[in-house]
Specification:
Layout lengths: L9 H27 L16 H21 L1 H8 L10 H6 L3 E6 L13 E8 L5 E4 L14 E2 L6 H7 L7 E6 L19 E9 L4 H19 L4 H8 L1
Antiparallel strand pairs: 1-5, 2-3, 2-4, 2-6, 5-6
Helix pairs in contact: 2-6
Length: 243
């Protein structure tokens, strides 16, 4: 699974990666500056730009409104999904790694069946570790969820185990998928306390169409604009310069 990312153009994804690198460098440089200055922080960024608090407040307001709109539009899906939250329980890590991809349909869908290689769908999800801890989800709050705050676009690229586990599922259905570590992140990423860890997902797959598709894209854009503003970066100007 490609975590926490919604659909963007190739150009946007390139700049997201670029900005992520810049942000990391900025954090490190800022920390170094604080140490050098005896704990005194600066009000500007390391590149000399200043943070526009007015813009940040404006973008926060837009983002919060989009989250509220998204939550309202997806209320029915959330109420359908949340009934199965009790299925998020601890599991045997060794068995999960040894048994390969395992599926369990919690609720059958009535929509189109997801075929092998099909990534034209959206998915609400929750992913958890062997100790029952949630590492990522569509929930607004992993501990006490009251609504959905995001949805995944499968076309962005999912982990192999997710893709295998989703095959044959019908849109509108809810499925539990157990992914062994070698088909999750293997040794390329530490998650759930280490590498090669198995993961479990509960997935509600839905059609990749409006109004959800457009609303999800608007929410994602509002989020990115806000995040870049925190670092004094104008998101719209960045995209314009890329053309």
């Amino acid at each position: 699974m490609d975590e926490k990312e919604l659909k963007t153009s190739p150009k946007q994804r390139f700049f997201i990666i670029l900005i992520a690198v810049i942000m990391l460098g900025s954090i490190i440089a800022s920390y170094a500056a604080i140490v050098i200055n005896g704990g005194k922080s600066s009000t500007g960024n390391t590149d000399g730009s200043s943070i526009d608090e007015t813009k940040i407040a404006e973008y926060e307001d837009v983002y919060n409104k989009k989250v509220a709109e998204f939550s309202a539009k997806t209320k029915g899906d959330f109420e359908k999904f949340i009934k199965y939250k009790s299925e998020i329980v601890a599991y045997n890590e060794t068995a999960a790694n040894e048994n390969g991809v395992q599926i369990r349909d919690l609720e059958d869908g009535a929509g189109e069946e997801i075929a092998s290689g099909d990534d034209n769908y959206l998915a609400y999800y929750v992913g958890w570790c062997a100790d029952e801890s949630i590492f990522d989800s569509s929930f607004d709050d992993n501990s006490n969820p009251t609504a959905f705050a995001k949805v995944l676009d499968a076309s962005l690229g999912m982990i192999e185990g997710w893709n295998l586990g989703i095959e044959g599922m019908k849109l509108g259905g809810i499925r539990e998928v157990t992914v062994p570590g070698n088909l999750a992140y293997g040794d390329s990423m530490e998650i759930c306390g280490g590498t090669n860890k198995p993961l479990k997902f509960m997935i509600l797959a839905v059609a990749n169409e409006d109004p959800l598709k457009s609303l999800a894209a608007e929410l994602d854009e509002a989020y990115m604009r806000l995040q870049y503003a925190y670092y004094g970066i104008d998101y719209d100007e960045m995209l314009e310069n890329a053309e």
